[in-house]
Design a protein that fits this description.
Number of helices: 6
CATH topology of the largest domain: TIM Barrel
Number of domains: 2
Largest sheet: 8 strands, mixed
Shape: globular
Number of strands: 8
Mean pLDDT: 88
CATH architecture of the largest domain: Alpha-Beta Barrel
Strand order of the largest sheet: 2-1-3-4-5-6-7-8
Low-confidence stretches: 173-195
Distance between the termini: 20 Å
Radius of gyration: 17 Å
Order of helices and strands: EEHHEHEHEHEHEE
Structural class: alpha/beta
CATH superfamily of the largest domain: Phosphatidylinositol (PI) phosphodiesterase
Helix content: 25-40%
Length: 199
């Protein structure tokens, strides 16, 4: 799956860019949400590339038979994500994720067939209660800032609690999978040095 961060333009078009501010990854300045899509498309996102829309990214991923891992960075993108997943029947190829459980609850309210994953950085938080509140099917502990080897925080007791609740676990922490039980419903984040090129 390809992880994509979804923001929205001022005219509510979902676009793919990591930061809320344009400065780090483009030749623009200011907030993504303050620009129309037409204005965003005039910016250089590196090597002459433009900021892609979510629709363009979906077309690219479909061309390369890649799944979509959509991280919500703007709640205004929710209706469009729901519509695009429905339009292209991407229910089995898409997971929507966020650090905002209320946004994920909104996704599920709009379309209960969309699979969601709740992100969280707190170690002591109850992952089962959080997932249930969001209506999420997967949990993703983002504990990289808490330990040099964050996968070691995934204790057998913690994993058993998640498993007993029927939740899947997605982790992007290096070296974690070989050290953890294989019986849980695993999701696994991959990475690639070179992203696919689409026409």
């Amino acid at each position: 799956m390809v992880e994509l961060d979804v923001h929205t333009s001022s005219d509510r078009v979902p676009v793919i860019i990591h930061d809320a501010n344009l400065s780090r990854t483009t030749n623009g300045t200011g907030e993504v949400s303050k620009y129309t899509l037409s204005e965003l498309k005039k910016l250089d996102a590196g090597e002459g590339q433009t900021i892609p829309t979510l629709a363009e990214a979906i077309a690219c991923c479909r061309e390369h038979e890649l799944g979509l891992y959509l991280e919500l960075k703007s709640s205004r993108a929710i209706p469009a994500i729901s519509e695009l997943v429905r339009q292209h029947n991407l229910y089995r190829q898409t997971i929507v994720t966020s650090f905002r459980p209320d946004w994920l609850a909104d996704v599920r309210a709009l379309d209960p067939d969309i699979v969601t994953r709740v992100l969280f950085s707190s170690v002591p938080i109850n992952p089962v209660a959080l997932a249930h509140a969001a209506g999420a099917q997967y949990v993703h502990p983002a504990w990289e800032q808490h330990a040099a080897e964050p996968h070691r925080l995934l204790t057998p007791e913690w994993i058993s609690r998640v498993q007993a609740a029927g939740l899947g676990l997605i982790a992007g922490m290096k070296s974690a999978r070989p050290r953890l039980p294989g019986s849980i419903n695993w999701g696994w984040m991959g990475s690639a040095a070179t992203p696919p090129t689409c026409s």
